[in-house]
Amino acid sequence: MLVRVLAYDRRMGHQPPPLTLAVTHREGNASSEVLGREFSTALEVASRGRVIAGRPLRVVRIGFHDPQQLQTELSQTHAVALYVCEGLEDESRNIAEVTRRLSILSIAGSETQISQGLAIGLEGKGNSPVILVHLEAARAEGADLDAGLLSLSRLIAPSTGAP
């Protein structure tokens, strides 16, 4: 689903190939590290042979230590999107500040993280995935989301104190 969602950001057609999707997990948190590894592997499999706006996809994993380190690694990898794993809920606002500075689309798996300032959420509700969009956050990251994505999504309002 994440790969499909990226296609709804019209900026992807203006990025140099390959499009790099970064997955960040909390370094030193065993469950977050496992999730990061599993999610990265699943993304690699899902993106194999797929293109978005004619560009191939590449997946990288980044262990999160602090916002500055994350910003450096995202810049070095030329990431266009960042998936934030569980275990980083208390860093959502700091991560959102980084993604906004770098114009990187942020994605997470919980509504809490989206209400704290990350842009796109993917949640499972029964057998159907639900796409959550924090429109203000997405715009702050420079996203140019197609109306088709918004028609399929549930809009999330920012919580107080969101960046």
Count of individual helical segments: 7
CATH architecture: 3-Layer(aba) Sandwich
Q: Please describe the biggest sheet, giving its number of strands, its sense, and whether it closes into a barrel.
A: 8 strands, mixed
Helix content: 25-40%
Give the N-to-C terminal Cα separation.
26 Å
Outline type: globular
How much of the residues is beta strand, in percent? 25-35%
Give the ordered list of helices and strands.
HEHEEHEHEHEEHHE
Averaging pLDDT over every residue, what do you get? 92
| CATH fold naming | Rossmann fold
* CATH H-tier superfamily: Response regulator
CATH class label: Alpha Beta
Low-confidence stretches: none
How many domain units? 1
Neighbour order of strands in the largest sheet:
2-3-1-4-5-6-7-8
The assigned structural class equals alpha/beta
Backbone CA Rg: 14 Å
Number of strand segments: 8
Q: How would you portray this structure in words?
A:
The chain is of the alpha/beta class and 163 residues long. It has one domain: Rossmann fold (3-Layer(aba) Sandwich), CATH 3.40.50. An eight-stranded mixed beta sheet has the order 2-3-1-4-5-6-7-8, with helices on both faces. It is globular and about 40 Å long. The two termini are 26 Å apart. The model has no long low-confidence stretch (mean pLDDT 92).
